[in-house]
Each structure stands twice: as structure tokens, then as C-alpha cells.
Here is the input.
Amino acid sequence: MGLLDYFRNTRPSTAAIAKERLQILVAHERSERNKPDYLPMLQQELLEVIRKYVDVDQDAISVTMEQDDKREILELNIILPDESQRKKPTKRA
Here is the structure.
């Protein structure tokens, strides 16, 4: 490394950064396009069922679907509150 290399701009150009960001956006849009239409409705119904037993926020549930050549994977993540925030079970007659 010469003395002049020290003073050169080693940061990537703004065009390279813009290109990288655009590639990320396009990849994200493609992944969203392949999602089934029923996922938001499924997420809402699951949230309603969970709320019968536990007080959770709207953002406490996330439903994602991944697909590869041989299978589809439905992933469900639920953030449950502490024990003190859970609803008490009601007795049924």
C-alpha cells in the first residue's frame, strides 16, 4: 500500500449503494408476491382464539410461509406475556 492509497476514497459509490438497496427491495417484493391470500385472515383468526385465553397485542403473532422445491412451511410465532398477565380460566356449566 502506497502513500497515495491512503488518501483515495475507499467508500463504495452512491450508485453501488443504490443498486444494492434496489436488489434488496426487488427480492422482498418477490417473496411477498408468492404469499397466499389467506395468511392475514389466518393471523387474525388465530389472534382472536389466543385472546380468549391470554391478553396479547396485535403484533404478538406473526405467520409466514416459506416454499422450496419439495415442501411448504407455515411458521407461526406467538409472543406470550408473563404469567401474571394471563387470563384466568372461566368455568363452564
Notes: DSSP finds three helices and two strands in the chain.
